[in-house]
Hints:
This protein is of the alpha/beta class. Helix 2 crosses helix 3. The protein starts with 7 loop residues before the first strand and ends with a strand.
Amino acid sequence: AIELDRPLVLHSFDPNPMPPEACQLNHSLSSIVKDVLLGVRASRQPCTASIDRISLTLHPVRWQDGQIESFEADAVYHDPFAPQVNPDCWTPDTFKWAAKHLKHSGRLATYSAAGHIRRAMRDAGMVVARAPGFGPKREMTVASMDDKALHPLNIKYRP
């Protein structure tokens, strides 16, 4: 976003955010991460911090309890740790909630490549594709309501 001079609005849902002193980022944007962590610690309410055209809101609640009024995202990055750790974050209901907040051509991406996760996305009404993994991951998953948004990826499931 910075390099392309584009606005970036981030919403993060975490009922147990890390303590601000644990934030060891060494980046020009680390101040907004620390600011929202401090704000949430003080109020236990959603907190927003911005720098230039980048805005981060941390909602200290479970995704099920999160409210984002009339917000349509271009992208959702789904990373609630493994299904064994947070099983309620990997259900069709989770992905229906995410799809509700995605633009029709928006994409949801996750490092998970597990079949039951991909089928949960499909069951939520999304088109699901395989994508090359990042770093040590061989494969990851990208989903959208619009199969054209996933071109040229290999479609795995359709609703």
